[in-house]
Design brief:
By secondary structure, this protein is of the alpha/beta class. The chain has 15 helices and 15 strands. The strands form five sheets. Strands 3-2-1-9-10-13 form a six-stranded mixed beta sheet, covered by helices on one side. It starts with a strand and ends with a strand.
Length: about 375
């Protein structure tokens, strides 16, 4: 059975998250998007865990207990749990190393990656680096290899993050046998954020549960990864973190990583960092589908200042009422059917599918942008 999953999100208890990041709005957002398996996010937080335990989950959806924690060297780890009981056990185990595990949705844990991974594995969970290439709070921001962070403990997966696709990791030798996940890291339940990156997996049963989801990831039964064009990410290219001026790696090194224009810090881009780590041997990976949220395509079509205007929201809802969920509209609905519904939108989605896109890369903390050709 093929399932579309998004396992890294955040709750209303995480910094910079929407107060609407509650179980029911999240489940509704998944239905609009076309996500059938959602991670809880922040499940070590006792109130959030209690909220999910009291939530009635629709029969056609699966909820996987998940969390993100910050360990030593500010490396962020994504953790998946087989059930809420194991989440409680790990919360109890890590609480002695954290001052805010019961207060912050994404807590800081005063342990290196190896120690965290060991405890997670002993209690039956899975772990891997979150947004592994991001130049802040990630595996490759602080380390040059998996073993440098996790020691002798294996990682069960690696999350690529919004500024990278499979091509950024498939030439790194110590990732050759590691499954790649793509997740939204959403902080709000709107479909433009929830499921903006997702993974499609194959389970061995027609009536899967949480353990089947974890087994599929553990065994590498990834059918497809989907997400942003890497250039859309905030840290894809090397750039100044103040004025966002892009620089080549040679220029940044020559300027000693200080912008000559405004003395801001120049931050190495994900593209350059991945190239540094690459060995030249390519690992065959499942296909990667570059995707753009439907709301953003509608915004470009209507020429509005924001994807959340009334006109955009109305057309978005009309699309879903006519054709189903967002992912199916972006990937499966025949273009002629879309054109019959709305000529300009049908043309725009056809341009997106055909790759007629002009990308303006992001860097230094500023998202990239795109134009449809």
């Amino acid at each position: 059975m093929l399932l579309t999953i998004d396992l890294h999100i955040h709750s209303c208890f995480s910094m910079a998250s929407s107060p609407r990041m509650l179980p029911d709005p999240m489940l509704n957002g998944c239905r609009l998007k076309g996500i059938s398996v959602i991670g809880t996010g922040d499940i070590l937080h006792p109130v959030w865990r209690e909220m999910w335990e009291k939530t009635t989950v629709p029969d056609d959806m699966i909820v996987v207990p998940t969390t993100e924690v910050e360990g030593a060297d500010r490396v962020h780890h994504l953790i998946l749990f087989p059930d809420f009981g194991v989440a409680q056990d790990i919360a109890d185990e890590l609480s002695q190393f954290s001052k805010n595990i019961s207060k912050n949705g994404r807590p800081q844990v005063r342990l290196p990656g190896e120690a965290i991974a060991q405890r997670v594995h002993e209690l039956g969970g899975m772990i891997g680096p979150a947004h592994a290439f991001t130049p802040w709070t990630s595996l490759y921001a602080a380390h040059n290899s998996v073993s440098s962070c996790y020691g002798n403990e294996p990682i069960d997966f690696l999350e690529l993050g919004l500024s990278a696709d499979s091509g950024y990791g498939n030439r790194i030798a110590d990732l050759a046998s590691v499954p790649f996940l793509t997740n939204s890291d959403a902080h709000s339940p709107e479909p433009a954020k929830l499921g903006r990156e997702f993974t499609r997996i194959e389970t061995r049963t027609g009536s899967p549960g949480t353990s089947d989801i974890l087994d599929a990831i553990r065994e590498g039964r990834i059918v497809m990864n989907a997400g942003f064009f890497p250039e859309e990410g905030k840290y894809n290219r090397t750039a100044c973190t103040r004025c966002f001026t892009p620089y080549s790696l040679a220029e940044a090194e020559n300027f000693k990583w200080k912008c000559p224009a405004d003395k801001g810090r120049i931050k190495k881009g994900v593209r350059e960092r991945a190239e540094e780590l690459s060995s030249g041997t390519t690992t065959v990976r499942p296909p990667y589908l570059h995707i753009i949220p439907l709301a953003e395509i509608i915004q470009r079509t209507l020429g509005t200042c924001s994807a959340t205007t009334k006109r955009c929201s109305e057309l978005y809802q009309q699309c879903l009422a006519r054709f189903g969920n967002e992912i199916s509209i972006l990937t499966e609905t025949p273009p002629d059917d879309l054109r019959e519904f709305h000529q300009e939108l049908g043309d725009a989605i056809a341009a997106f599918r055909e790759g007629r896109i002009i990308l303006h890369p992001g860097g230094g903390g500023k998202y990239g942008s795109f134009e449809l050709g």
